[in-house]
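Task: sequence design from structure.
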């Protein structure tokens, strides 16, 4: 059993801690967070407060102010780093130099050179470095990825994704100075869809911004070589607006629709009528299980390589530099 410490105990740190506890091959050995009273109000963590947390088990976990103290006293095998974006580079570098495997919450690093340096260091230290792009492990998105790759409905012609919700009102988003460093909705929210599209289709021949209003985006990816059109839209709306994630994919012989408003069902229109596919499973649990497997058997995280995660950052930077058409 691998001993894992969670560094940063905000919304995502709490989610990662829960899924470490529920994984039979992992032990939550410590939490690293410099704040006082980190368990206060934990039942209402995040945007829903419905995480079904093992609260008493979490409260039994040793808490340390620094990663140095944690490593000295607990000797973890790995860390899950869930801190604000501006801290990713420094803490990941420290953890690698301590000889730890790392699950780093997305996005990777704000600077491309920082990401490249960390990838090189992980290689030198022979450590696993995986960036937590959880949508790659969501059953409904896995189904879509399989349909694109195995062409069971023919070639993909159009993919339109939507991901939007109220601007976060919890955690670091309450601090105006830290909020400025988080990359806005592009790096916090739409990077999920950007990364998913890249994982299925590779680098687009063209990227454009069709519309931008505050933190709401409508982005187009074109794949001219095989005539695929991609629309990615969404971002932060006014606070407390309900979250939704959706996709529409049109193939030569079918169209597929999914909405988080009906999270267990994928609807498929075919020549034979409407088909429905039921999906189940938790993306965060699946992600942590995959990471556990990688560190146990010393396997590169092929399903979620840091090279891909850095590419998503590169795309976001290019998109931010584009002017709306």
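Answer:
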């Amino acid at each position: 059993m691998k001993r894992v410490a969670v560094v940063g105990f905000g919304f995502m740190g709490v989610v990662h801690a829960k899924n470490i506890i529920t994984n039979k091959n992992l032990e939550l050995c410590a939490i690293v967070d410099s704040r006082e009273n980190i368990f206060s109000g934990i039942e209402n963590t995040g945007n829903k407060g419905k995480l079904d947390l093992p609260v008493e088990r979490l409260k039994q976990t040793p808490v340390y102010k620094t990663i140095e103290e944690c490593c000295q006293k607990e000797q973890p095998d790995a860390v899950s780093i869930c801190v604000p974006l501006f801290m990713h580079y420094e803490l990941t570098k420290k953890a690698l130099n301590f000889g730890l495997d790392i699950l780093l919450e997305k996005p990777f690093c704000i600077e491309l050179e920082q990401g490249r340096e960390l990838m090189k260091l992980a290689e030198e230290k022979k450590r696993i470095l995986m960036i937590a792009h959880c949508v790659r492990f969501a059953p409904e998105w896995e189904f879509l990825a399989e349909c694109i790759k195995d062409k069971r409905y023919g070639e993909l012609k159009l993919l339109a994704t939507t991901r939007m919700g109220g601007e976060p009102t919890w955690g670091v988003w309450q601090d105006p100075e830290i909020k400025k460093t988080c990359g806005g909705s592009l790096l916090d929210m739409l990077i999920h869809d950007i990364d998913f599209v890249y994982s299925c289709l590779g680098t687009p021949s063209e990227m454009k911004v069709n519309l931008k209003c505050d933190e709401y985006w409508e982005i187009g990816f074109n794949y001219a070589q095989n005539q695929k059109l991609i629309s990615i839209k969404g971002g932060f709306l006014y606070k407390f607006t309900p979250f939704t994630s959706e996709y529409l994919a049109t193939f030569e012989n079918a169209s597929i629709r999914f909405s988080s408003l009906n999270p267990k069902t994928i609807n498929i229109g075919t020549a034979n009528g409407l088909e429905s596919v039921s999906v189940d499973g938790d993306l965060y649990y699946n992600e942590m299980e995959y990471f556990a497997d990688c560190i146990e058997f010393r396997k590169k995280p092929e399903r979620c390589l840091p090279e891909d995660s850095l590419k998503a950052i590169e795309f976001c930077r290019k998109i931010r530099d584009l002017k709306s058409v």
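The first helix runs from residue 11 to 21.
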